[in-house]
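Bumping my old thread because nobody answered last time. Still need a sequence for this structure:
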């Protein structure tokens, strides 16, 4: 139940502007470390996992990274739960291995990443056929479904040289199951960074006003230094 509530609140927070995301305290450190893992200059097709608990800021980090590097790719797409749910609503969710569901997912995926409104495909090799010579950037955020992942990015050979695929999840076993070896863990911020996050949310400043310092430290500890909790408490 706590996880569901956290995800619901997080979805609402993601409606904030990209500028707000750029101001996420500590974002530059995360981007720098992820850039090392991504090795954007390498010609290989590389899959990277972005892993951490719910509410720790994975999606915020992913969206900022996506905005910054997408211009280096021929095509790019940020796949979230809403993207996949549209297909799940059309087909019987009980049959996760449905051929037509996978076909529909691939059709929507190709239409989005190629910027074409009405793509016709009639088999599940279409992704490889259409993208094998294209350098693309793919983010898959917060949807831990092996069938869906296999349907969209089942093989690195489907994509052109230099392509990058980033899978964002709170389940490390999900990454291992798909053979993703390069994983960046988003850890809890230090107490100093957590206090700064709380101050940014509550006071729009990096430090607490005089007389509030002890209270801010107590609240940061109460939130367990979790960025989602710090944002919610600071905004309330």
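Sorry it took so long. Here it is:
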């Amino acid at each position: 139940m706590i996880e569901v509530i956290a995800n619901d609140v997080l979805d609402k927070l993601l409606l904030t502007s990209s500028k707000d995301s750029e101001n996420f305290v500590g974002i530059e450190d995360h981007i720098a470390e992820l850039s090392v893992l991504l090795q954007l200059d390498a010609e290989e097709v590389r899959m990277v996992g972005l892993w951490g608990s719910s509410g720790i800021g994975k999606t915020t980090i992913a969206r900022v990274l996506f905005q910054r590097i997408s211009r280096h790719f021929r095509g790019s797409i940020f796949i979230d739960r809403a993207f996949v749910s549209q297909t799940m609503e059309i087909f019987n969710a009980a049959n996760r291995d449905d051929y037509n569901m996978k076909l529909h997912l691939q059709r929507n995926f190709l239409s989005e990443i190629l910027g074409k409104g009405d793509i016709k495909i009639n088999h599940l090799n279409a992704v490889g056929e259409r993208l094998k010579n294209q350098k693309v950037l793919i983010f898959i955020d917060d949807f831990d479904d092996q069938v869906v992942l296999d349907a969209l990015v089942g093989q690195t050979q489907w994509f052109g040289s230099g392509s990058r695929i980033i899978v964002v999840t709170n389940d490390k076993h999900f990454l291992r199951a798909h053979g993703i070896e390069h994983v960046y863990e988003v850890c809890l911020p230090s107490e100093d960074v957590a206090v700064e996050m709380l101050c940014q949310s509550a006071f729009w400043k990096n430090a607490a006003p005089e007389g509030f310092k002890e209270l801010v430290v107590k609240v940061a500890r109460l939130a367990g230094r979790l960025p989602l909790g710090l944002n919610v408490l600071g905004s309330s």
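The chain has two domains: 2-185, 191-235. Let me know if any region looks off to you.
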